[in-house]
Amino acid sequence: MALRDAILAALTKGEYSGYDLAKAFDVTVANFWTATPQQLYRELDRMHQDGLIVARTVEQEKRPNKRTYTLTAAGRAALGEFVVSTPKPIAIRDELLVQVEAMTAESVPAVRDSVARKLEVSQAKLRRYEDRREYLLAGRTEHRFLVEADENLGSYLTLARGIAFEQENVRWCELVLDALPERD
Amino acid sequence: MALRDAILAALTKGEYSGYDLAKAFDVTVANFWTATPQQLYRELDRMHQDGLIVARTVEQEKRPNKRTYTLTAAGRAALGEFVVSTPKPIAIRDELLVQVEAMTAESVPAVRDSVARKLEVSQAKLRRYEDRREYLLAGRTEHRFLVEADENLGSYLTLARGIAFEQENVRWCELVLDALPERD
DNA sequence: AGCCGCATGTAACTTGTTACATGATTTC
DNA sequence: GAAATCATGTAACAAGTTACATGCGGCT
Predict the structure, then answer these.
(1) Residue B181 CB closer than 7 angstroms to strand C?
(2) Which nucleotide is closest to A22, CA to C1'?
(3) For position A148, what pLDDT does the model report?
(4) Cβ-Cβ contacts under 8 Å, B154 against chain A
(5) CB A96 within 8 A of CB A143
(6) Is A65 helix (H, G, I), strand (E, B) or coil?
(7) Quick one: three-class SS letters along B67-103?
(8) Angstrom distance, A89 CA to C18 C1'
(9) Is the pTM value of this prediction over 0.85?
(10) Within 13 Å and on the Cβ side, how many CA atoms surround B164?
C-alpha cells in the first residue's frame, strides 16, 4: 500500500493529474519511489473509490482534458496514520550488481559497458538533484536551512539522500571502470 | 526474471538448498537483491522444471532432509546471456523516505524514532559487510586486491557498493536526527 | 509525412508478500 | 517448558510490468 501513501504525500503539495504525477515520479519523487503511469492511473482510481481523493475535470483548449485530484479529509487521515507507522525495510534489487557478481572473463567488456552507461545516467540525475538543492537552499547554507525549519524540510532531507545515493553510484562506477581491464 | 538470474549467480558458488539460499539472500546477496524464502522455493521449482538446475536430496540425521540444487549447462548458458544483457534501471522504494517527505510537526517524534531504528540496522549491516571485506582482502590493500584480479572480484565490487550504501544511510540518519528537534 | 508531447485508459501477465501448516531438534 | 533453528511447502492476495489502443496539436 505504499504506492498509495507516496501518492498521498505528493498530493499534499497540490492538485495533480495522473500524467502530472507520472512526471513527478520521474523527478522529485524518484529519490524514494518509482511507479509507471499505468500503476498511477490504477491506484488513483482505487483511491477515488475509497474516498481518499476527489477528482475534477479540467477542460483544456488544444490539449486533452485532464482529471486532477485533491486530498479529502479521509486521505489526509490515511497519510497521517502511515507517517507514524513502522516502515518496511527497503528492498534493493539491482540487475547490474547481479551481473557484476556473476561476471566472467568473457563478459567483462559487456559489463564494463553497462557500468559506463550507468555512470552517465547517475551523473545526469545528480545534476538535476543539485539544481533542485540550490533552489531549495535559496542561497542559504545547509545548516542555516535546517535550523530555520522550513516547510520543505522533509523534501530537502529526502533530496539529500538522493544526492548521496547518486554520488555513491558515480564513485562506484568509476571504481569498477578502473578495476576492469579495458577491451583491446 | 532477475530473481532467477540472482539465484543462478548464487549457484555458481556451490550447491545450495532453498533454505541455504534464503540465508545467503539475507547476508551476501543482500547488497543487490532480496527475496523471501517463499519466492525462492517457488522459483527453484520453476527453474527445475525448465531444466536450469538439477536437484539432489541430501539425507540428514537429526535434521529434515534437504533438496540441494546445482546448475546445469542450460543454467550456465542462461546466466551467460543475462550477464551481457542491458540491465534494468534500479527502482528505489523506501517507505521511510516517503514518511520523511510527508512529515508534519505532530509526526516528527514518530519519524525520528523510525530514523533512529534505521540507523541501528544500518550500523549492524555495515559491521557485517566490513567483516566480509576484511576476509576478502586477506590483509591486502584494496588497490593490490583489484590489480591481482582475483576470482572474487565481482563479489568484492558488489560488496563495496553495499558498504558505501550503508555508510550513506548512517550519515543520512545522523543528519536527520540532528535536524529534527528532539521530543521533550 | 512522421515523430514527440499531452492525456487516459484496458488487459494480460509476472513478481512479490503474507498467512498458514508441519514436525523434529537444539538452546535458554 | 518455551522459543528458536532447521527445512519445505500451499494458497491467496497485492503490487509491478508490458503491450496495446486512442486521438489531437505542434515541430521539423
Answers:
(1) no
(2) C7
(3) 87
(4) 100-103
(5) no
(6) coil
(7) EEEEECHHHHHHHHHHHCCCCCCCCCCCHHHHHHHCC
(8) 16
(9) yes
(10) 18
